[in-house]
Amino acid sequence: MKLSTRSRYGARLMVDLALHYNQGPVQLSEISKRQDISVKYLEQILIPLKKAGYVVTVRGPKGGYMLADPPEEITMAQIVELLEGRRNLVACMANPEICSRSDVCITKNLWEELTEMIYEKLESITLADLAEKARRKDENRKEME
């Protein structure tokens, strides 16, 4: 499975917002610097995240973006599925009619099982989990310096 840049950057954006949860709105330029992702790209990723209700916008001079829900309530499966636009490793899973072997294909079952395993794992990981790992990693890095 190869995740798109959109999903990978979207995950980084959402973890960044989770790290700053309850600290007020975060400006896109700050996220851009910390995550090394262009503001323009982040703006494009934010469109579906806002539309789905995962992120809210705060207007004004001290405005920015915030998670709409606590990080404990948002899973990586939700983010990946939203940004990938599908939940299938191979196209024939969603559209069996595109393959003449769909009814007899043994590997199709494998792809279905593998997809389920991947999404079960993604569903078990919240933004809070990743934010905590990021904090620990940062603390370890600082101790090493």
The CATH topology is Arc Repressor Mutant, subunit A
Distance between the termini: 36 Å
Structural class: mainly alpha
Strand order of the largest sheet: 1-2
Could you name the ranges where pLDDT drops below 50 across 5 or more consecutive residues? none
Proportion of strand residues: 5-15%
Helix residue percentage: 55-70%
Describe the largest sheet.
2 strands, antiparallel
Envelope shape? elongated
Itemize the secondary structure elements and their pairings.
Blueprint: H1 5-19, H2 28-35, H3 39-51, E1 55-58, E2 64-67, H4 76-84, H5 91-94, H6 106-123, H7 127-144
Antiparallel strand pairs: 1-2
Helix pairs in contact: 1-4, 1-7, 4-6
Walk me through what this model shows:
The protein is mainly alpha-helical. The protein has a single domain, classed as Orthogonal Bundle (Arc Repressor Mutant, subunit A). The protein is 59% helix and 6% strand. Strands 1-2 form a two-stranded antiparallel ribbon.
Short note summarizing the structure:
This protein is mainly alpha-helical and 145 residues long.
